[in-house]
Amino acid sequence: MNAITIVVASICILLIVYRLYGTFMAAKVLKLDQLDALKQTPAQKLDDGQDYVPTNKWVVFGHHFAAIAAAGPLVGPILAAQFGYLPGLIWLLVGAVIGGAVHDMVVLFASMRRDGKSLSEVAKEELGPVAGFCTGLAMLFIITITMAGLSMVVLGALERNPWGTFAVGITIPIAMAVGLYHKKTGNLKLATIVGFAAIMLAIVLGPNIQGTAFGDLLTLEKSTLALILPIYAFFAAALPVWLLLAPRDYLSTFMKIGVFAALIVGVFIVNPEVQFPAFTEFINGGGPIIAGPVWPFISITIACGAISGFHAFVGSGTTPKMINRWSDVKGVAFGAMLVECLVAIMALIAAISLQPGDYFAINSSPEKFATLGMETVHLGELSKEIGMDLEGRTGGAVTLAVGMTYIFTAVPFFAKMASYFYQFVILFEAVFILTAIDSGTRVARYLIQDFFGDFIKPLKRTDSLGANIFASALACFMWGYLLFSGDISSVWALFGVSNQLMASIGLIVGATVVLKVAEKRWYMLTCLIPLAYLFVTVMVAGYWMVKNVYFNGANPGFNVLNGILSIIMLILGVVILATSINKWIKLWKIPQAVLVEQSNKEVA
Question: Does the pLDDT at position 124 exceed 70?
């Protein structure tokens, strides 16, 4: 098996799906083109220059893609390569086509129908107060865990890496300068060119700071980075969306798409051999990276890239407040999900192009790797070329950087540029994760204001500086605590279960909205089919983790707090599903034409 076969087949499948299934969802199920002529989007209706801002569809796509395609599509497929290349590849394609793209589209649509409200508020209005309360509480738990899980990947990539820390940090003032210039002049093209060139210059200048006093200042330990990230996120969440969040998402999208386009070209030139078997010995469990069996954990480890609940936060948070036309929903939501799937497939290829011994040496602790009976092949040589010790750098980010560097430097022209390729990949990984942290923390701020605002009325005012600051600080403290006190093995598994539970909740809300707006009731199956699989998967995985890991004192992952959080979330999921089924039964008794008319009046 070689990588070209996987890439060509995947691109063909995704293009066909976008053209056929995406058009069906847009034209038949959600009827987006009709809405353009009938109704303003929330961004047009509630334009405030702060959160609700009508935005160019390509900028919105850039923001949305950068926000959803963070660590998940880069890290999940790499960690899941432990099972072999085939389980991850199948889940990515099937999950994205049947589940992820539909989920993202219906959640974004559902939020826009309700003036860009958060999913908890949408659930309350669509399903009733019980489901709304449970959804809001579940979302608070899940967004907190998600931010910690995503941030954990940055720690491993930037730890004692001044070059990478400088390149990532400089993107903040660059993005703010781009945002200010575009706001003042409206010249997006020039702002894009200068901003992207400045980011590339940072990569080139990076080696010069190593060994200097400034470089020593940026040589940070994990514990220091774990404090810096929440502080940065606080300011990113509190600043206007046009100043930092949107321009950096937009610029980083060029970087990410560009890098993976280059990787696709590199795969065609080098045509690397797939070094992994279709299935490894760890499919029944007991692996050094993921302790559980291939099912349900393939669908838990790989979230973003297939289907991800984190997308529901973005799709009911920042993005619905920026869409300028209803018809843009297809490209922004459905299209971005399929592009993210391709990104995840390329990340998987980068991992499985490595020798298994090299892969497991990077992703396992030295103690665990010593028990596997494997030998490294090229890792020592790669460590020397890159200028860093690569063994035991768990979390997936380093594996992706090493795998891509291995492919690129096989081209003779780039053979002496291993260190630059490595740091560039670390940069774009970290930037994308930080853009997700930007968006996720802002979404957490919205959730806190929506949820606690029912009890503390002034907190619900999104135009209040004090309320915004308090909610942003609380959000950062909650996920910052988990980040500071956890590790990748404990946090990522908890993130996976909670993230897919959130996707199940998104599909529940989406199914309800489809039932209320579609001309044919069977269109509801577009949400119910992926929901049935995902909900069962989450329940099985959650139970397995609680029983075998979190409440098992003999397991290194023993963590009572994680176990309690898991149980609470699973109970909330069952309550939400039961409440929703009761609601669906009531709605089913109403003639469809009458139901559609009533639903349109609800949001008129």
Answer: yes
